[in-house]
Sequence to fold (341 residues):
Amino acid sequence: MLIKTRKKSDIKESQLTDENVYKNRRVVLKALGLSALSIPLASSAQAGLLDLFSNKEKTDNSATTFKRSELIHTKNSQFQSLTPVTPEDKILQYNNFYEFGTGKGDPFSFSQQFKVDPWQLVIDGLVDKPITLNYEDLLTRFAIEERLYRMRCVEAWSMNIPWLGFSLATLLKMASPKSNAKYVRFETLEDPKQMRGQSSGYIGGGLDYPYVEGLRLDEAMNPLVLLSVGLYGKTLAPQNGAPIRLVVPWKYGFKSIKSIVKITLTDKAPVNTWQKIAASEYGFFANVNPQVDHPRWSQASERFIGAGNLFAASRKPTLPFNGYQEEVASLYKGLDLTRYF
Fold:
């Protein structure tokens, strides 16, 4: 499958952001009487209102910010842009990672003591050659490259992010999938002592942990799918999914599971975390589709994380498959994407 070079025009100047830091925003679900099934939030108006409330638990970990290391890497010329990308400080401080809390600033505020070394990533299931990788393996065993990918959240906001990582297909081929392997199941670390959201249903949004995601094997083998170990030239911060996370740029962000400890090949489709809690709202495929609205908000447009007030950002039309239609549409030929969303 050919992958076309991203042109400068693909990311317009109007989508770019300045270097202003948007710090430590909180989302307090109780303020609007929302239940666990009503998150993630999509409305910027709701988010702005929720921001008026504060959380007494909050701490400032700025003095003990997680230390990231520079990564030796090459730039993949197929996925670069001549225009700026979302500033690093905004990528670091505006996140969804419910293991550390439901507020956009919670992952930054409550993850800075997270331990990524030692780490163990196991690739098992329907494979002929199971693999176990340690922390050093993740950073040195594979050729690391930079790819600039658009990221579209199901909440209808987006970023442009320079990820560092390697192809998931490279790893899966090393494990030698068996002929009956049809799906790939991913699992996040479960460690309630480090991840406060896993020890409290209120803090963690009522999700059933550990967080689980899945892809069809043919999706997982697509050249676009990246296992990321860094961004902006450095290793990942905990709030972004350190030490290793999935990046699937044509799907909504919740598919790109963070802090992975297990990759299992199976013959059955895994039930994903958001699918389990609200199957009518979050499907298995989760392809970015402006024609298929979330039951409670439109997906026709998105709010790019830009300059100035975060919630006053201008909106732009959402692209099918987040702009990667030419590379991935053939994966779903004959599939009704309004039914299999």
The chain has eight helices and 13 strands. Residues 1-62 have pLDDT under 50 and may be disordered.
